[in-house]
Amino acid sequence: MKIKDSVVIITGASSGIGAATARAASAAGARVVLAARREDRVRELADQLDRALGVRCDVTDPAQVAALGQATLDAFGRVDVLINNAGQGVQAGVEQLSLDDFRGILELNLVAPLSTMQAVLPVMRLQGSGAIVNVSSGTTFADVPGTGGYVASKIALERLSAVARNELEGTGIVVSTMIPFATSTEFLSSIRAGRADAETMTAGAVFDEPERVAEAILELVESGEPQLDLVPSAYGGTR
């Protein structure tokens, strides 16, 4: 899928990887729809970009997801790319992990991407083309204590993506998974629970800039490969 002139929906676009991807896609000639709960941020960023639209959207609310899809069609007439970037972390041992926190993480990191995929797939089928990138996490490469809830949500997203890719073979729609490593974003400050433990665990780590991840996401859209990771080889990745 070529980025230039395509219509790209990006969730979690108010900061970090999502905002960086919006900027990169716009610079590459795409028409960008920025979706996030923080409406002021996505509208401000959209105003800075060419042919961009900012839409308030809580991706855990099916009605708002449907409205996001309709707003995209109303503005640009099609949907070529969906980048499921919205997500949140949680840090707690299996024995201490709150079931409410776990359900919340699953809702945002797993159920919401399925919801947004279901919202755009009918349009993509009519078009005979489309690209979906689901953003996972390098934490899925290891069994680090305290990450069980978060990793479970992201591993499930990776498998969901792989199955969807197989189901959509021959339709012109490609589903891929992006696996970043530690990235300089608001992730740690917005963690659902266990922020202090997460900050301790990542102390001293070398973080990628979100622009590097954005570049990799657009590379994945254009290549259509099943998966791309930015995980160093020392941790089991390809970098």
From TrEMBL:
GO MF terms, alphabetically ordered: oxidoreductase activity
Ketoreductase domain mapped to chain residues: 6-182
Keyword Oxidoreductase: yes
Pfam families: adh_short
Entry GO CC: membrane
The keyword Oxidoreductase appears for this protein: yes
Alphabetical keyword list: Oxidoreductase
Similarity annotation: Belongs to the short-chain dehydrogenases/reductases (SDR) family.
Annotated protein name in UniProt: Short-chain dehydrogenase
Record organism: Subtercola boreus
